[in-house]
Amino acid sequence: MTRESGSPRGVLARRLVQLYTGLVLYGVSMGLMLRADLGLEPWSVLNQGISRHTGLSIGTVTVVSGALILLLWIPLRQRPGLGTVSNVVILGVVMDLTLARVPELSSLGARIPLLAFAVVLNGAATGLYIAARFGPGPRDGLMTGLHLRTGRPVRLVRTCIEVTVLAAGFLLGGSIGVGTVLYALAIGPLAQFFLRRFAVSGLTPAPSRVVARSGTSPERAILPE
C-alpha cells in the first residue's frame, strides 16, 4: 500500500480495512502455526495447554482468555480501542476456522515451509493491524499497563509475562519447539518492516514491536497478541 494522502473518510476506510484484514490474517497465521506442529508463540502455548485440559477449542480459549485479560485493564486504567475489542473476538474465531479448513500434516517437508509462511504472515498481519492505529491487543495492553503502573522497563515486563505464560503453557501441555524460537527471533524485524510498509499517511508513526532484547519505550510495545 502507498502512503498517498486522501480525504478523512478515505483514510478512515483504509484504516478499517487494514484493521480487519490484519486481524483475520493474524488468526489465520496462528492456525497455520498450530498445523505446522513445530512450536507456538507463548500465548498460543498457554491457550493450547488450557484447551487440552478443558476440552474447549483453542480458538474459544483464545477469545475467553483475551476477554479475561481485558478485565485486568480496569485496575491498570488502560482504555481499549476498536482494535482491542475486535482483537478479542476475531483472532480466536478465525483460528478455529483455519484449523477446520487446513488438515493436519505429517510430512516434515510440508510443515517446515508452513511454519515459515505462518511467521511471515503473522508479521504482515501485525503491520496491517497496528498501522491502522485502533488500539493494542489485550495482552500488549496488559504489558504496557503494568509498565506504566510499576515503572519497570517494558523489556523487563514483557520478558516476565512471556516467560511466565510460556512456562505455564508448557506445564499444561502446550507445544514448544523450533517454531517458538523462530517466532521470537523473526517477529520483531518482520513487524518493523511491515509497520513501515503499511503506515497510513496523516497518522503519527506506527509503533514497533518490543521483544525481550529491544528497547524500553512503551509506545513501541503495542501489538495484537
Features:
single chain, 225 residues, mainly alpha, 0% strand, disordered C terminus
Overview of this structure, please?
This protein is mostly helical. Helix content is 69%, strand content 0%. The protein contains nine helices and no strands. The protein has helices spanning 8-36, 42-54, 58-71, 73-76, 82-101, 108-131, 138-150, 154-171, 178-197. The longest helix is centred in the N-terminal third of the chain and has 29 residues, at 8-36. The two termini are 23 Å apart.
Beta strands, count? 0
H/E series = HHHHHHHHH
- Indicate the radius of gyration in whole angstroms: 17 Å
Shape: globular
Write down the oligomeric state.
single chain
Helix percent band? 55-70%
Question: Please, what is the average pLDDT?
Answer: 86
Query: What would you call the structural class?
Result: mainly alpha
